[in-house]
Amino acid sequence: MYGVKGMYTGMKNDMILSILVCDDDKYFFEILRDYLCKNMYFNKSDFLYSGNKEDMLKTYRKVKPDLVFMDIEVGENIGFDIIRELLKEGYSPQVVYITNYDYYVFDAFVGQPLGFVRKQSLETDLETVLREVNRVLEKRLKVIEITSGTTKYTLKLSEIIAFEIFVHDMTVYYYDDTELTVRYTLKKIENELNKYDFIKISRNTLINLNYIKDMSKDMIVMKNGRRFYISSRNVTEVKNRFKKFNEERHD
Asked: What radius of gyration do the chain's Cα atoms show?
């Protein structure tokens, strides 16, 4: 769907979700896929299948899917441990755990999952889980459109860690360390971005609160290691907003 980073070549409503299912039972993957395709968010999704830990990690790192359905027992590996590896690497997977065993529900909190699905109660559990999944994906799929010169760009906000202005050029920093530079100004998008977890930390920089790893007196470290300075007049507002953001996320 995208060629040059951020350059949109389809309609906004045709954005394709990538869904990774990690389960050593491929037949269950097919059942789950067919059921999810009945949901409006998933009927045009790109479904990916991994039957073991190694393939799952490789696929996740390459694709960075929008949603992961993670079997808690994958061969000799435990799904919680696989997700922990991704968390240690700085990723923030959106996870729904799946299993044959009810007792795992009490342990299914690794990575702040969106829900828990029992295979023997698939339709009932999915009906509940998908309400939360839909809410989260609506937020993750937010895009903004900008036009620079004669070129129109559609930017998927969940992939972006920051916007920064240098003279008349605006650089868009992505989590995967790629960048897009266009002729633009922050003023044109600042108010809109404020609704989607972005905050102004200096005269020239807006950052995505979802990607903050650490914050000191005058600097923010993002989950991919990139650093941004906070202007002294913005420090209090940024810290208060980040504190409120974390409280709301964990409610």
From this structure: 19
pLDDT of residue 14: 42
Dist. CA 197–CA 199, nearest whole Å? 7
pLDDT at 47: 94
Position 102 scores a pLDDT of 67
β-pair type (169-174, 179-183)? antiparallel
Query: Exposure pattern of 199-229 as b/e (b: 16+ CB <10 Å)?
Result: bbbbebbbbbbbbbeebeeeebebbeebebe
The conformation of residue 10, written as its DSSP 8-state character, comes to S
Angle between helices 122-140 and 26-36 (to 10 degrees): 60
Secondary element (H or E) of residue 138: helix 122-140
DSSP 17: P
Residues of the chain with pLDDT under 50: 1-14
Sheet of 212-215: strand order equals 212-215, 219-222, 227-229
Neighbours of 132 (CB within 10 A): 13
Q: What does the pLDDT read at residue 3?
A: 29
Q: What is the pTM of this model?
A: 0.57
Residue 113 CB contacts under 8 Å (≥ 6 apart), including other chains: 95, 96, 97
- Residue 166, beta-bridge partner list: 169
Tokens matching residue 233: 């007049």
Q: Do β-strands 169-174 and 95-99 pair in parallel, antiparallel, or remain unpaired?
A: unpaired
> Which one, of 210, 87, 117, lies nearest residue 158 by Cα?
210
Listed as own residue / partner, the contacts of 108-113 with beta carbons closer than 8 Å and 24 or more positions apart are 108/72, 108/80, 110/80, 110/83, 110/84, 111/83, 111/84, 111/86, 111/87, 112/250
